[in-house]
Amino acid sequence: MKTKNAVLRKAGQLILKYYLLGILAFAAYRAINLHPRFFNGTIWSDAEGYYLYLPAVFINGGFEDLPVRTEVQFPILEGTNKRFTKYTCGVAIMQAPFFLGAHFIAANTKDIPADGIAPVYVKGIQLAALLYGFLGLLFLRRILLRHFDPWVVLLTIVGFFFGTNLFHYMVQEPGMSHIYTFFLFSLFIYLTPRFYKKPGLPIFALMGLLLGWITLIRPTNLILVLYLLLYNVNSWNALSNRLDFVKTHFLKLLIAPLASFLIFLPQFMYWHYMSGHWLMYSYGNEGFTNWRQPRIDMVLFHIKNGWLLFSPMAGISVLGMLIGSWKNKFNIGTIFLIFLISLYAFSSWWCWWFGGAFGQRSFVEFYTLLAIPYAYLLSLVFSQRYWLVKILFLFIWLLLIYYGYMLMVHFTGPHYEWWEWRQVVGWMREFRFDVRQ
């Protein structure tokens, strides 16, 4: 009996230590066997807009007469022969090492065209998404282990990875921005305690760089600065101490916006090169036109990418925020504030469904924050005396993973319609695991 218990204990320890590698291996397997409709669409539409800086700079020698796959979306700027993208270069900077590796292979292999769109370049993007996604999960694990039991952390990460659209944007649409900002969010939140424990120029510069990078990729993500400013502010006395911290380190803190400016510098150069202006609003007539009547109900539940319709697993986070925000334990009150502001912003955007997507993709990078109230709720559940409560919760948790994963593997895009959703739910009842492609 003792031997059996020791074996089980050892197996549990191995699972807790290496489950992220298991997640990475499964994600890599799915990426290797990705269906052609996802593989061929990796450099397409929005994803091409983030990426095209790389072939422009390293292959075409500029944006003049730059060939693109999505002609309608990336027109020649009027009065020039330069190809214009409204998307910023933050993702391209993160993809650059993988692009250069793929380009080196293509340039030195006879049968591979060094054109920036050959399969070897797509595989480079896949590798980038796998690496950044894995590192994002790794830092998320370290964040959660500061406060929660390792088994709660495991359930949190597995639940988010398989039960939400996080998996989709790491594996099936690796060219989109979200898995890259998910990593940057995770690193930023992981480093936040160090910002206050070991203040100085290095950490101030690094956090400024990260925040600038996050904002460069998606400007609405600037809201993350609230987490840094309000971290562990749970009382008026804590707020007073935070103001004293800013006064004490004010001059050194100025390096943070300077570091943010440096990461924006390539973008400023692109805008000036294209228009003669260092700063421009690249989205034209697009804006937050629904700000008076935000489409909150649609963002959450509509068939066109409703967040909780396609990722109901994330609803556990919402419950955790509602329960945990009162005392702001683990900064859950601050996270709830960030969530509400972000929800309003996403609901106010003219295209509240954010185009072709699997679920409300704008929340993907926020999963690092939302994992904290999620884990908090799990810890409350598993602290209960009654085993029936724990078993019932685990049963619901497994159902949510099954639901989210099945919607993802049967997704054909550009987004679901009700007839298709009903069909896939019907397949779920049949336990039909074959992936419809």
Radius of gyration: 23 Å
**Shape estimate:** globular
Q: Segments where pLDDT lies below 50 for 5+ residues? A: none
Based on helices, strands and strand pairing, what is the structural class?
A: mainly alpha
Q: Can you give the mean pLDDT?
A: 95
Give me the strand/helix succession: HHHHHHHHHHHHHHHHHHHHH
Overall number of domains: 1
| Approximate helicity band | 55-70%
Question: How would a textbook summarize the main sheet?
Answer: none
Count the E strands: 0
Instruction: Report the span from N to C terminus.
Output: 48 Å
Count the helices. How many?
21
Beta fraction of the residues? under 5%
Structure description:
There is one protein chain. The protein contains 21 helices and no strands. With 437 residues, it is mostly helical. The termini are far apart. The model has no long low-confidence stretch (mean pLDDT 95).
